[in-house]
Amino acid sequence: MSITNTPLSEQIRIVLFGLRNAGKSSLMNNIFSRDVSIVSNVAGTTTDPVTKSIELGKLGPVAITDTAGLDDVGEIGELRIKKTLEFLEIADIAVLVTRADLPISEVEKKFVTEVKQKRKALIVALTFSDRDIEVSKSEFIKNYKYVKIDNLSKKGITELKNEIINLYNEIEFEISPLQGLVNENDLVVLVTPIDLAAPKGRLILPQVETIRDALDKDCAVLIVKERELKLFYDSLKIKPKLVVTDSQAFSKVAADIPPDQPLTSFSILFARKKGELALFVEGLRTLKNFPSDSKVMILEACSHHVQPDDIGTVKIPRLFRQLVQSNVEFEFLKELPEEIKLKEFKLVIHCGGCMVTRKKMLSRLEKLKSFGIPSLNYGLFLAWANGLIPRAIEPFAYEYSLYEK
Ligand SMILES: Nc1nc2c(ncn2[C@@H]2O[C@H](COP(=O)(O)OP(=O)(O)OP(=O)(O)O)[C@@H](O)[C@H]2O)c(=O)[nH]1
Ligand code: SF4
Ligand SMILES: [Mg+2]
Predict the structure, then answer these.
(1) Which of 20, 24, 26, 37 to mutate to test the pocket of ligand 1 (most atoms within 8 A of CB)?
(2) What is the per-residue pLDDT across 140-198, written as a single tens digit (0 to 9) for each?
(3) Hey, which of 204, 354, 376 would you mutate to test ligand 2's pocket, going by the most ligand atoms within 8 Å of its Cβ?
(4) What does pTM read for this prediction?
(5) Closest C-alpha to ligand 1, atom 16
(6) Is the domain of 218 the same as that of 280?
(7) Domain check: are 258 and 282 in the same one?
(8) Which of 213, 240, 270 is the endpoint of a domain?
């Protein structure tokens, strides 16, 4: 995706923070090689945040924001600081811009503590490196990733960009549930059964996130239970771009809508969001000729309340024994076991991972990959068990091509 068609909400956010006159706007202009922000020696030149997008290597399009000084003064100054700190909430990478020739200030120390508390990635851009470095500043930067910058000669700019790109693995960057699947003004239908397993009075996280994502993408959303789907679907005047259903209602939903209607499940959207749908699709291969007397791990990522007909402990083992191999032993775990034990498993079926970060999921899946243990997730397994593969992965060109192979 290029900068122009990647919504800002899906770009990695890099924010330049620092005291007034630290050289933030000069740095911004040097990163973009043109005048994006106003530079002057008057403290407090930048009053409103300025955001621009740029391609940065494997990070793809990133949005960089220049902010007002963290030490702004007066009533309006305080409001500006508040506004600046709001950008810390959405920042994936915080760049602290600080002058080499000045001592570290309390404001900067406090800011860095906050960045750490919020577990954001941090880089220190040491501006004015054309001057001698002050003692307390040189002590301070030892604790952080830093790059020496001279904004006047543009020294250090490429290095800073590279350091930012190197943070790739530290950023918990997830694609959004509907990314690349819908465009503005599309209609998305979400099918959300309200059964015994549904939490009282609210929707589950994957549903809420998908609704929000559709709205962010300027789509309309029709939310129905599986029982009402047919009635409302048949009365629609425009064809939905995508129908997303809870895995458990998959067969009913598929039967109630035309075969050419793109359809997938929340679990599959979230398997992709965590980054490894392709791996799970490859995992489907092991279901053919699954060895008897072998062990299957059911791996969940949090301790949710176990229901009477629980997906992980009851439904999946039952379906697996019926459809894949009756003679298998299941183990139910929340963490990957030690290596000796891990090697005993022929397959791992992971939950949707809705409560954990992509980083955590990826590190688990990487480990399984390194041991040559295939993995699947609940959504994909249930879709397969209900005979809906390949239909449920058709909306994903790459993964679908893997399946076709
Ligand atoms: N010598 C030297 N001067 C610099 C450097 N970076 C910025 N300056 C100068 O410092 C002054 C302030 O730079 P700005 O980029 O406007 O600083 P800022 O952090 O955006 O300031 P505010 O918007 O007021 O918060 C300007 O006169 C710049 O030319 C540097 O690396 N070395
Ligand atoms: S993280 Fe996994 S176990 Fe926990 S609620 Fe989400 S899908 Fe279920
Ligand atoms: Mg400025």
Answers:
(1) 26
(2) 999 999 999 999 999 999 999 999 998 876 776 677 899 889 999 999 999 999 987 77
(3) 354
(4) 0.57
(5) 39
(6) no
(7) no
(8) 270
- Candidate from 32, 39, 47 with most ligand 1 atoms within 8 A of CB, to mutate: 39
Is residue 280 one of the residues assigned to a domain?
A: yes
Pocket of ligand 2 (CB under 6 A): 300-302, 304, 351-356
Q: Whose CA is nearest to atom 6 of ligand 2?
A: 354
pLDDT at res. 121: 92
> What ligand has the least distance to the C-alpha of 313?
2
Q: Whose CA is nearest to atom 27 of ligand 1?
A: 41
Do 165 and 294 have their domain in common?
A: no
Domain count, the chain: 3
Q: Report which protein residue has its CA nearest ligand 1's atom 6.
A: 23
d(CA 345, CA 327): 14
Q: Is 165 helix (H, G, I), strand (E, B) or coil?
A: helix
Ligand with the closest atom to the CA of 351: 2
The domain of 83 spans: 8-170
Strand pairing class (294-299; 328-333): parallel
107 and 151 assigned to the same domain: yes
- Residue 205 placed within a domain: yes
| DSSP conformation class of 171 | S
pLDDT tens profile 375-396: 998 888 988 998 788 999 999 8
Token pair belonging to 91: 């920042």
Which atom of ligand 1 has the smallest separation from the CA of 69?
A: 25
In angstroms, what CA-CA distances link 250 with 165, 219, 225, 281, 350? 40, 23, 12, 18, 19
Query: Does residue 2 fall inside a structural domain?
Result: no
Rounded distance between C-alpha atoms, residue 351 and residue 271, angstroms: 9
Residue 352 Cα to ligand 2 middle (Å): 6
Is residue 63 within 8 Å of residue 88, measured between CB atoms?
no
| Ligand positioned closest to the Cα atom of 378 | 2
Nearest 10 degrees: Cα torsion 68, 72, 75, 79:
30
